[in-house]
Design goal:
The protein has 184 residues and is mainly α. The chain has helices at residues 3-17, 26-39, 50-58, 66-76, 97-115, 120-131, 135-147, 151-159, 161-164, 172-183. Among the domains are: 1-90, Orthogonal Bundle (434 Repressor (Amino-terminal Domain)), CATH 1.10.260; 148-183, no CATH class. The protein is 64% helix and 0% strand.
Length: 184
């Protein structure tokens, strides 16, 4: 995992731990670090800026200074050694290739949820899939639903009526045709 992915992941986890139900923004992270430093018995002069975090997360700055690494490790309560890029193919547990792919998929979904945070329903759907123990299987099911004519509309109408109330309900003949096709 890249350092940039780790920082985004830690912001997501920290935001959820703080009850935000979303990732902490970079600016919220900077403020929280400043508040923790000010509240400490020995006020630390170490700080980090939002622009520096942005450079780290974008990959423009691939490495942290030792001071910043220690500051972030202390804030997120992780070992400083965690805040480096992992070598290609590295994982800390004995995992199958499928589990490693699952972790990458989950990180990708969390990143997508962050990008679509202005669409709360989509953001929550992406996070729900990412939090599921088998997100890969969820996507395989979605593919099967999409490939079955009229099933997508019918399931949406039945399972999410509050959202589909503006949409036209699937007609009975269309639903019957879909059932006949799927039973052949």
């Amino acid at each position: 995992m890249k350092l940039s992915d780790k920082i985004r992941y830690l912001r997501e986890v920290e935001g959820n731990l703080r009850g935000l139900d979303r990732a902490m923004t970079q600016q919220e992270l900077v403020r929280a670090i400043q508040q923790e430093n000010a509240a400490g018995k020995k006020a630390s002069k170490a700080t980090i800026s939002q622009s520096y975090l942005s450079q780290i997360e974008s990959g423009a700055r691939p490495h942290l200074t030792n001071t910043t690494r220690l500051l972030l490790a202390k804030f997120f309560k992780v070992h400083p050694g965690y805040l480096v890029d992992d070598p290609e193919g590295y994982h800390s547990e004995l995992l199958s290739d499928l589990r490693t792919a699952e972790d990458k998929l989950d990180l990708w979904l969390v990143g997508g949820a962050e990008r679509f945070r202005r669409d709360p329903a989509l953001c929550q759907a992406l996070l729900s899939v990412a939090n599921h123990s088998d997100s890969r299987r969820c996507f395989l099911l979605v593919e099967a639903i999409i490939e079955t004519p009229a099933l997508l509309d019918r399931l949406f109408y039945v399972l999410r009526p509050e959202v589909s109330s503006t949409a036209v309900a699937p007609t009975q003949p269309a639903a019957k045709k879909a059932v006949k096709r799927s039973t052949k």
